[in-house]
Amino acid sequence: MDDLDRRLLDQLQRDAGQTLHELGELVGLSASAVQRRITRYRASGLLTREIAVLDAAKLGGMLFVVLVALERESHEHHRRFAERMRGTPEVQQCYELAGRWDYLVVLSTSDMARCRELGDELFQRDDNVQRYETMPVFDAVKTGLAVSLS
Amino acid sequence: MDDLDRRLLDQLQRDAGQTLHELGELVGLSASAVQRRITRYRASGLLTREIAVLDAAKLGGMLFVVLVALERESHEHHRRFAERMRGTPEVQQCYELAGRWDYLVVLSTSDMARCRELGDELFQRDDNVQRYETMPVFDAVKTGLAVSLS
DNA sequence: GTCGTCCACGCAAAAATCTTGCGCTTCGGC
DNA sequence: GCCGAAGCGCAAGATTTTTGCGTGGACGAC
């Protein structure tokens, strides 16, 4: 993991749609060298996948942020909760937290009503959820999954 | 925006690395038809960009969730705050919220110390930030930017 | 009904990109 | 100094993307 890797990965996090040649010019490598590095990232699991980013606003959808505190915190309870989050398509993101709350969940739904339904289904009905707080998102100021490569 | 579009976009949100032919098989179109639709998504701004997703854990980085409440809520104050978030590379995501908190910020840093520095720089020093609460992320249960296409 | 237009499709050729074999250089261990 | 491993660029070969073209269905005007 040298400086070339960092620059390349940083570039890929920003825009993975460029050609190998373009990427090569940006970091100072030939297309084939770039390609071999990317293959290595993929093989090592460092580069998980490539995804298309859609404009949520243009689709008329809404986002909600939900903070969740569990009642009991056993390993099994956590596993079950996580599994449910992973299995629900409207759950865009879910993080297990340290601190006052146990989970942060980001929901992407078509409207408010669907959010309420989901809240009911995922949190209200689960008697291991002690309390949860739902906040609608006014505006997605910045989105992305880019990790700091310092 | 028909059913084919929804299935195609859904697929692209999950994995944009497939060939047009593969995508075509999944939704029942030829490669060229798939391509023409994707070109349309791009032109209309619906498809913003394609990005590589890296495994944060494999890079040894940490994630933090920060909830922020502002002191004064004028348009200008919001604009300034948002601009600062957009301009900070370690700010992975930032959402303006309705409810008890004004912003949710996701930070990606190399370590705890850097998070503290950032918190200081971005929130502590800003006298329009009334209060903020930082929570380290134990585990990224689910990540992505996939929007519900109902 | 039927004509004409529009739009999206599939097919296939052309263009572009990705992949891989090869020879070269660099670097570290012995 | 010599050897092997690792990474590079170049260029040929394989694959994918892009585009031109002809076809067929939907729809409105007549």
Automatic annotation (TrEMBL), chains A, B:
One Gene Ontology cellular component annotation held by this UniProt entry: cytosol
InterPro entries given in the database record: AsnC-type_HTH_dom, Dimeric_a/b-barrel, Tscrpt_reg_AsnC-like, Tscrpt_reg_AsnC/Lrp_C, WH-like_DNA-bd_sf, WH_DNA-bd_sf
Identification of the protein by name: DNA-binding Lrp family transcriptional regulator
Keyword Cytoplasm: no
Organism for this UniProt entry: Saccharothrix tamanrassetensis
GO biological process: response to amino acid
PANTHER family cross-referenced by the UniProt entry: LEUCINE-RESPONSIVE REGULATORY PROTEIN, TRANSCRIPTIONAL REGULATOR AZLB
Entries under PROSITE patterns matching the protein: HTH_ASNC_2
One family name in Pfam for this protein: HTH_AsnC-type
Organism classification: Bacteria, Bacillati, Actinomycetota, Actinomycetes, Pseudonocardiales
GO MF term set: sequence-specific DNA binding
UniProt domain HTH asnC-type: residue ranges: 1-62
Swiss-Prot/TrEMBL keywords: DNA-binding, Transcription, Transcription regulation
